[in-house]
Write a structure and sequence with these properties.
By secondary structure, this protein is α+β, with helices and mostly antiparallel strands. Helices cover about 35% and strands about 25% of the residues.
Length: about 425
């Protein structure tokens, strides 16, 4: 999964920063004590635009949706927003009417502190499911964050750290994009390490841009970018209740996205940010030691390619083999066979980093070749190609291995 497959990628320049890379955006974090264990850590943040912004969001496909998802979807009906309030340590999911009211209270508190309307505030939560938000702790933290907003890169990094749960590192990405004689910036932050599976992952993501982007096109571009990036990663096959990707565009750069060329440049930049953050999520997968770029080609349709890819990428047997540096092509073929896609096992080729492990559904390496394949499977990152030789359908996913550490980390959510 590349950052951009467009010829206009030469106009993309990767820059340092996250949500504050785009002009006119501020952020701040606070430590409220939401997280139950360990020392007091930052667990809440606000990302705000100095001026009105168009906004779009993509949310979890899980039928069990957390209160912040329901509220943010409602607030996005206008296609506008000024701020995003995020917290970690508590998902505010499966909390019923009290949970929805708590999300509304948080949005209202942020709106009052920022001097904006409540429906201009989007909310995100991540952490333990089934526990009510500790409002007495959070409301002072919201006011603190709102009063200390800054445009500095350090503030963006602090915000990225505040939404971490089982993440081991903060995740940020940013680009500057040249459009004719002008340029705009786009940057973002994300969290996610476990409960990662298409569609979407157990993730929160906020992307900001100082381009002026109409809300309708922003929604379209975000859906497409998400489909090619966040919807193509998997760690453990679980789909969360809180998955959210939000994008705000405030126009501070004075670059308006109107023409086909400008729209393509913006879409490429948005996909680049999403791709960088998606790869960072997979690389930080809970209890994982390898990142695998899986390509399925030659499927009868793109949908079939995705079915096969997801079956392989989520197979616990395949993941365990990869954890043991075992290029077990038989397990890969087995997963492809139960994916529910058209498949002729006698036509399937499987390769690791371009080295064939199986041809026409059978192993094709001698002892020396097997040793080479094992060396590839022992690398921290490698590629697997599965060619079905049935058509032109193709899909690319990022996935991981599965180790004993994953089980240890997920014995309890109390470590959040």
């Amino acid at each position: 999964m590349s950052s951009s497959n467009s010829s206009s990628s030469k106009n993309l320049k990767r820059i340092a920063g996250g949500v504050n890379a785009a002009r006119g955006f501020l952020s701040a974090a606070a430590a409220c004590g939401i997280k139950r264990t360990g020392p007091l850590r930052s667990d809440l943040c606000i990302v705000a635009s100095e001026t009105p912004a168009s906004a779009a969001g993509v949310f979890t496909t899980n039928l069990v949706k957390a209160a912040p998802v329901l509220l943010s979807r409602r607030h996005l009906d206008s296609g506008k927003a000024r701020a995003v309030l995020l917290n970690s340590g508590n998902a505010n999911a499966c909390t019923g009417t009290p949970g929805l009211r708590a999300a509304e209270q948080c949005a209202n508190a942020a709106a009052v502190a920022l001097g904006i309307h409540a429906d201009e505030v989007l909310v995100c939560s991540t952490g333990r499911i089934g526990v009510q938000l500790p409002l007495p702790k959070m409301l002072p933290g919201i006011r603190e964050a709102a009063s200390s907003l800054k445009a500095a890169p350090a503030a963006a990094l602090a915000a990225a750290k505040s939404i971490m749960t089982s993440d081991s590192v903060p995740k940020q990405a940013a680009y500057e994009v040249r459009v004719g004689a002008k340029s705009f910036r786009i940057g973002g932050m994300a969290k996610g390490a476990g409960m990662i599976s298409p569609n979407m992952a157990t993730m929160l993501c906020v992307i900001t841009t100082d381009a002026a982007v109409p809300a309708a096109f922003l929604r379209k571009a975000l859906r497409e970018a998400t489909g090619r990036t966040f919807n193509c990663i998997t760690v453990d096959g679980d789909c969360s209740t809180n998955d959210t990707v939000l994008t705000l565009a405030n126009g501070a750069s004075k670059v308006a996205i109107r023409t086909a060329t400008e729209k393509k440049a913006f879409a490429d930049a948005l996909q680049a940010v999403c791709a960088d953050l998606a790869r960072a999520i997979v690389a930080d997968g809970e209890g994982t030691s390898r990142v695998i770029e899986l390509t399925v080609k030659g499927a009868r349709s793109e949908a079939d390619a995705h079915r096969v890819g997801r079956a392989i990428a989520n197979s616990q047997l395949v993941k365990c083999a990869w954890a043991g540096s075992d290029p077990n092509w038989g397990r890969i073929l087995d997963a492809a066979g139960y994916a529910g896609a058209a498949l002729d096992p006698d036509k399937v080729d499987i390769a690791y980093d371009g080295i064939k492990a199986a041809r026409n559904g059978m192993g094709c390496q001698d002892a020396k070749g097997e040793a080479t394949l094992r060396k590839i499977a022992a690398k921290k990152e490698f590629s697997v190609l599965v060619d079905l030789h049935l058509g032109k359908g193709e899909a690319r996913l990022l996935t991981t291995d599965l180790t004993e550490e994953y089980v240890r980390l997920n014995l309890s959510e109390f470590s959040l």
